[in-house]
Amino acid sequence: MKNSVDSTVESPALPAPPPARVATMALFVDVDGTLLDIAARPDAVVVDSSLPSTLQHLYALLGGALAPVSGRPLHDVDALLGLTNAAAAGLHGAELRGPGGNALARPALHAGLDAARTCALEAAAAIPGVLVEDKGAAIALHYRAVPDAETDVRSAALDMLRLAGTDYELLRGKLVIELKSKHADKGTAIDALMRIEPFAGRKPWMIGDDLTDEDAFARTNALGGISIIVGKRRPTLARHALAGPAAARAWMKSLLHETESAR
To answer: 171: domain CATH number?
Structure first.
């Protein structure tokens, strides 16, 4: 299964950068566990009332160089955050949108996916507490309610992978295993966006919380950017840290406050 990291260094806390550095940022942000607190079900997350306004102001401040990078489909990301004209990556990069809503990549639906979906539903019926999140082009098995079922969930996920075929891979997250396209990840999404305006020429900053964000941390580090882990998960390739989603939201507000204070 994809995702292992080899950094064991504790990530130092992240201060707000000075306004001059804010002006050069290309900001990439994960959604669940980073901007939003994790909920028992993906459809039960609560959006902090000030978050959409913070994101809209940051989007304007950065000249559009702000992009959510999520495992959710883009229609879910848009419904939660309201950044419908912003560049964004969904389904871990298999779905990619440029500034102004321009579609840069769409996920392919291969023949084996239907059989894998049936397998996922059968596994959830056989393992009480397991939740199937059907994302269309990806399928996740959540076992947050039954963490002791990890071995059975892994076995079911391997069956899904066998049925789906060679264009897919398994991606582990926090009490979730997901079947996704192996041809894209959050790192490739950042790489693609950093080649186009308004991201090109800026320094990438990536904020994420899960194992699913490690590809993005790796690519951000390779590009000379700033990688930020949200929460206590270690080891990680991220080089800075924020305590949790509330701290991440407060840090993004601080970018606005620092810039306003400098005027």
So the answer is: 3.30.70.1020
Among 181, 203, 222, the domain boundary falls at 181
Gap between the Cα atoms of 104 and 94, Å rounded: 10
Residues 76 and 163 in one domain: no
Tell me, yes or no, whether 159 and 245 share the same domain: no
- Mark which of 155, 181, 207 sits at the end of a domain: 181
pLDDT tens track for 92-125? 999 999 998 899 999 988 999 999 999 999 999 9
Are the C-beta atoms of 127 and 153 separated by less than 8 Å? yes
Which active-site residues does the annotation give?
Answer: 30
* 207 to 14, 128, 150: CA distances (angstroms): 11, 33, 27
Q: Give residue-wise pLDDT tens across range 35-65.
A: 999 999 999 999 999 999 999 999 999 999 9
